[in-house]
Amino acid sequence: MVGVVSDDQGFLDSRDSMKMPVVLVTSLANGDLALKFGYSTPDGSCQKMDMTLSKGAVDGQFSNAAMAQTDVRVVVTDYKHFAVLYFETQKGGVRNVWLQLYARAPELFPEGAQKMQQLAPQVGLNPSQGAMLPKSVRGRAQECLQDLPLGAAPPTEPPQRAPSSPRPSPS
Questions:
Q1: Alpha-helical segments (H) within 104-165
Q2: Residues 99-128: tens digit of each pLDDT
Q3: Is the pLDDT higher at 36 or at 43?
Q4: What is the DSSP string of 65-104?
Q5: Fold of the domain built from segment(s) 3-144
Q6: 67-82 tens-digit pLDDT
């Protein structure tokens, strides 16, 4: 993940100290998506997180009730360099929106960043609510996931047809 835009106050408060995690995304046989994250923490240790996004009723839509992620969609991707995901969360009656930019390499892919900035106002976000994440300490985030096959390339074709645009912002 190389960039994030969100109205979540926790994110806004911590975005300046965030570093780029390593994320491994795997399409499961049942249509769900498995995500494994490896973060380098400020003290130099590793933090790992596994998450499964459950396939929704609509192709390209997912959710994760345990993480309060009620609507997750791949809104734009070129299947080679980047993907922008839309997340909607509901915690304690508060709705938050996220756009996350994923890339195959730990460098910013300009077209992906441009798409995320263009999408932000369409989902009720201001691009100023975002951050391009700096790289973690060289190799440290990768070490967090050393037991995973990081060299394996993700599928070049989508497991499902993704919607062409995110959920419109409320009026």
A1: 110-122, 140-144
A2: 999 998 877 788 999 999 999 999 999 989
A3: 36
A4: GGGTEEEEEEEEE-SSSEEEEEEEEEETTEEEEEEEEEES
A5: Lipocalin (2.40.128)
A6: 888 899 989 999 899 9
Work out the number of other CB atoms within 10 angstroms of the CB of residue 100: 20
Write out the H or E segment, with its range, that includes residue 49.
Answer: strand 46-55
Q: Check if the beta carbon of residue 139 is closer than 8 Å to that of residue 40.
A: no
Checking DSSP bridges between strand 22-27 and strand 46-55, what pairing results, if any?
unpaired
End-to-end CA distance of the chain: 30
Give the pair of three-digit tokens for residue 47. Answer: 């933090």
How many helices and strands in the chain, by DSSP H and E? 3, 9
Residue pair 22/35 in contact (Cβ under 8 Å)? The answer is no
pTM over 0.90: no
| Domain extents in the chain | 3-144
